[in-house]
Amino acid sequence: MAPARKTAAKKTARKTTKKTATRKTAARKAPAKRATKKAPARKAPARKAPARRTAAKKAPAVMTLKHIAADLAEEHEMSKKDAEMFLGDFIDTIGDNLRKGQKIRIAGLGILQVRARPARWGRNPATGEKIRIKASKKVAFRVAKDLKESI
Predict the structure, then answer these.
(1) Contact 133, 119 (CB under 8 A)
(2) Which residue range is the domain that position 74 belongs to?
(3) Are 139 and 116 in contact (CB under 8 A)?
(4) Is there a domain that residue 5 lies in?
(5) Are 97 and 107 in the same domain?
(6) DSSP 55
(7) DSSP assigned state of 139
(8) 85-88 contacts at long range (C-beta below 8 A, 24 or more positions apart)
(9) How do residues 76-127 score in pLDDT, each as one tens digit?
(10) Around Cβ 39, how many Cβ atoms within 10 Å?
(11) HSE-up (13 A, CA, CB side) for residue 31
(12) Pair (127, 139) in one structural domain
């Protein structure tokens, strides 16, 4: 009789494991049943072939000192590093002369000079309180006539 009890015990064990197994799979499958309708799959847009480099390059939206140096280096057959150093020194020289109060006239471009702004009264926009704005200096640039007309 012992063998009959073992088989009955095995059957009940199998039934419980099957039940728990179905519960586990049901729990895993439940979110899939509740899923909402998915939109039809869209094809990804076709990728464009990489643009070929041509002799004429597009000018960047904003010309920086590096862009100008690269153009000058190409035109005058010099290295970009040398052109960048030259332009950097050029700007330093302009700054030094403006600090001394000198007027700088560059033919075809315009005139750079320092202008004094006198002290004045102003208003704090948040409170409306009257405040004193101290005197300062600013760099003014006046465009050359030729450049203005060419644009």
Answers:
(1) yes
(2) 64-101
(3) no
(4) no
(5) no
(6) S
(7) E
(8) none
(9) 888 989 999 999 999 999 999 999 989 999 998 999 999 999 999 999 999 9
(10) 6
(11) 2
(12) yes
Counted residue by residue, the chain has a size of 151
Give the amino acid at 104.
I
Which pLDDT does position 142 carry in this prediction? Answer: 94
- Burial of residue 84, with CB atoms counted within 10 A of its CB: 0-12 exposed, 13-18 middle, 19 or more buried: middle
Residue owning tokens 């002369």: 97
Compute φ and ψ for 80, nearest 5 degrees.
-65, -35
Nearest to 104 by CA among 83, 90, 118, 87: 90
Total number of domains in the chain? 2
DSSP 76: T
pLDDT at residue 139, as a whole number? 93
Domain assignment present for 3: no
Same domain? 86 vs 116: no
Rounded CA gap, 81 and 108, in Å?
26
Do residues 95 and 133 both lie within one domain? no
CA distance 11 to 5: 10
- Report CA torsion sign: 43, 44, 45, 50: negative
Question: 0.70 cut: is pTM over it?
Answer: no
Which one, of 94, 66, 92, lies nearest residue 80 by Cα? Answer: 66
Residues 149 and 115 in one domain: yes
